[in-house]
Amino acid sequence: MRKIIGAFIAAILVEIAIFIVVGKVMGVFTTLLLIILTSVIGVIIAKKQGMQSVRNLQNSISEGNPPGVAIIDTFLIFVGGVLLVTPGFLTDLVGFTLIIPFTRKLYKPAIFYWLRKKLKNGQVFIVHR
Questions:
Q1: Which of 45, 61, 64, 67 shows a CA-CA span of 20 to 30 A to 10?
Q2: Residue 94 carries which DSSP code?
Q3: pLDDT tens digits, residue range 14-56?
Q4: CA neighbor of 98 nearest in space, from 110, 114, 116
Q5: Do 80 and 95 form a contact (C-beta atoms < 8 A)?
Q6: Under 8 Å CB-to-CB from 110, ≥6 apart: which residues?
Q7: What whole-number distance in Å separates Cα of residue 95 and Cα of residue 89?
Q8: Are the C-beta atoms of residues 54 and 76 closer than 8 Å to each other?
Q9: pTM of the predicted model, to two decimals?
Q10: Distance, CA of 52 to CA of 72 (rounded, Å)
Q11: Residue 124 has pLDDT above 90, yes or no
C-alpha cells in the first residue's frame, strides 16, 4: 500500500513539474488548451475503442469462448479513458498507450503474470456456474 501511495504522490509531483515547464515554454493559455484538447481527443478514441472491446467481449461470450483477453482489453481501455480525462501530460501519455491497440499489447503480459500469481497463491477464485 505504501508503494501505491508513494507512486501516486510522485506522479502528482511530476505532473506539476511538467505543467510548470510546459507553461513557461508555451504559455498558460496554450498549455490549458493542449490539456483540454488531449482530453477530448482521448475520450473520443477511448469511447470508440471501448465500444469495440465490449462487442468483442459479447462475441466471445456468445461463441462460448473464454472472454479473458476481451475483459483485460476492456479494463485497460477503461483505465486509459479515466487517465485521459484526468488533467496532466503524464496521465495523458499513459492513457493513450492504454487505449491504442498496438501499445496496449505491451501491458497484457504483466497483467497475465499478475493474475497467474494471484491464482497460484489462492487470492483469486474463478467460479463456474
A1: 45
A2: H
A3: 999 999 999 999 999 999 999 899 889 888 988 888 888 888 8
A4: 110
A5: yes
A6: none
A7: 10
A8: no
A9: 0.80
A10: 13
A11: no
